[in-house]
Amino acid sequence: MSxxxxxHIDKYYGKTKAVDHLYLDVKEGELVTLLGPSGCGKTTxxxxxxxxxxxxxxxxxxxxxxxxxxxxxxxxxxxxxxxxALWPHMTVFQNLAFGLQLKKFQxxxxxxxxxxxxATVKLEGxxxxxxxxxxxxxxxxxALARALVLEPDILLLDEPLSNLDALLRExxxxxxxxxxxxxxxxxxxxxxxxxxxxxxxxxxVVLNNGKIMQEGSPxxxxxxxxxxxxxxxxxxxxxxxxxxxxxxxxxxxLQTNDGLFIYGIGEGFKEGDRASVVVRPENIGIxxxxxxxxxxxxxxxxxxxxxxxxxxxxxxxxKFKVKNTILxxxxxxxxxxxxxxxxxxxxxPDELPIIRSD
Amino acid sequence: MINRxxxxxxxxxxxxxxxxxxxxxxxVSLFLWSIAxxxxxxxxxxxxxxxxxxxxxxxxxxxxxxxxxxxxxAFFLSLTIALITVVVCMAIAIPAGYALAKxxxxxxxxxxxxxxxxxxxxxxxxxxxxxQSFTRLRLAGSIPGVILVHILVGLVFGVWITNAxxxxxxxxxxxxxxSVGANGFKTFLRITLPLAAPGLFSxxxxxxxxxxxxxxxxxxxxxxxxxxxxxxxxSSSGYNxxxxxxxxxxxLIPSIFFMVLIQRILKxxxxxxxxG
Lengths: 358, 276
What we know:
The complex is a heterodimer. Chain A is α+β, with helices and mostly antiparallel strands. Chain A has helices at 42-50, 92-102, 107-120, 136-148, 166-183, 194-200, 218-223, 228-233; strands at residues 4-13, 16-26, 31-35, 57-62, 65-66, 77-80, 154-158, 186-191, 203-208, 211-216, 238-248, 251-256, 261-265, 274-279, 284-287, 301-311, 315-322, 325-332, 342-347, 354-356. Chain A has eight helices and 20 strands. Chain B has two domains: 2-50, no CATH class; 72-273, MetI-like (MetI-like fold). Chain B is 74% helix and 2% strand. In chain B, helix 5 (123-136) runs parallel beside helix 9 and helix 8 (184-213) packs antiparallel against helix 11. Classes of the chains: A alpha+beta, B mainly alpha. The A-B interface holds A 50-52, 71-74, 77-79, 81, 83, 85-89, 98-99, 102-103, 130-132, 143, 146-147, 150 and B 170, 172-173, 175-183, 186, 190-191, 194-195, 269-270, 272-274, 276.
């Protein structure tokens, strides 16, 4: 268990900057997720930490030890790969024992440690199996056990669940999060799946083009996105663009180009600033046609037309249109709207972050 | 009414027999010739059979026939040359194939292509040219010269097959080994090499068989002093079919032996799990 510090690292591939002046301070026992689309630099960053790449600039510290020029095998890291990377010519036991043998443990201790590690990932009795005799989920558990059995200072997981099917993925998320907390290992988790990141992380670092877009707790990242990229990456999002008209208490008033007024939450805006309202489907409340009261405080109440309705099970996905703005919304499948309907919606201003347009 | 199933099975049987004839027909003919002590046209089978020619070829019995040679020294010469060729080839091919597969080597593709060169042109002109250089270097007509030619030819299989083998091993398997504390050398020894073993072995067998079989280069570089088994076969085949057949069968034995062995090894269980 140890801290991890990436002190302003740069990494170039030819002329492209894959990692751009990245600073990251990971506390002991913390699980930090690097989240971003492919090519955002998250895997490159991870490979700098594991030692398979050397940053062109900046240094990496594990605890107080500077590891920038230390080879991977001496860094005290545990690695879990997307494709499991179990050694096919070794049994499960041999896969787990290999690292322990290199560290010169006694045969008895190795057997005990391997047994314990397999028990924690619920694979007791699988010692003599070969990797190809295991399912994908079991293989990933073995890979996890192989990394954990050495009690590494830092655990690095590179898209560990991306090869598993959806159901297993969901189950494994919780298992990984639970194991990480139980062992208390400082962990870097790389993924492009924002739901996965939300479920397991203490802290999420959103990356794009090698730069940190935002870092914070899952709640912060979701409810207070720093910019359009982060807001868009965290799930289905509609943006309503406009210019700031003024502040009304804690609310900011925005006027769109086609004359709509909308309120949301934001800080540090002044009149005339270009900004966008971040609207998530769950923040759009559909008001029953019968109960519309136009006398009500008209703040953030809009008449929209239904462009498209797609049934996806427990909810219906809607595309609403108000003036020239398209809003993605969700509605109860028991009270379906049909495309062409006109309906009134309410957007609670307390749930609408306003971000600067870039 | 014709039963389609019967038709299908009949077709399969006929196909099987034809392929068997193609495969084993020549071998049966070789075998017959090797034991034919008297065989006059138009008889379909030899009039007198016996092991006289085998005994003569193996040097167990003195022979006065035209084109008769004792093949034992030639066999051991060929075997020695082939073994040395395999050792040298693999000593070059394993590091070269590994480096070309795992590191970004400038002009790596061109280097790989260069190993193909000796086989990319008609063989005679290549070796006639080589003879001139070798004569200057006093390598012509010597066993080291012949070994050098065999290495040149063998490296095609050596480097290309080892390269492909190492390329097929996912880099994550090696990285995982590094992460649990194995240095580069231990990773190669404990992970890469065992996984590559079937491929490396087949590559070695190809080099071995190529060397055992090599004719053109040996003919130009080796003659008149170096008589390998294929050259002996060539010089006796014009005069004495029986000797030629005995030599051909002996040449076949190592090939068949290793082919069976390769098949066994390639079936080794863990190969199936590779890349999974």
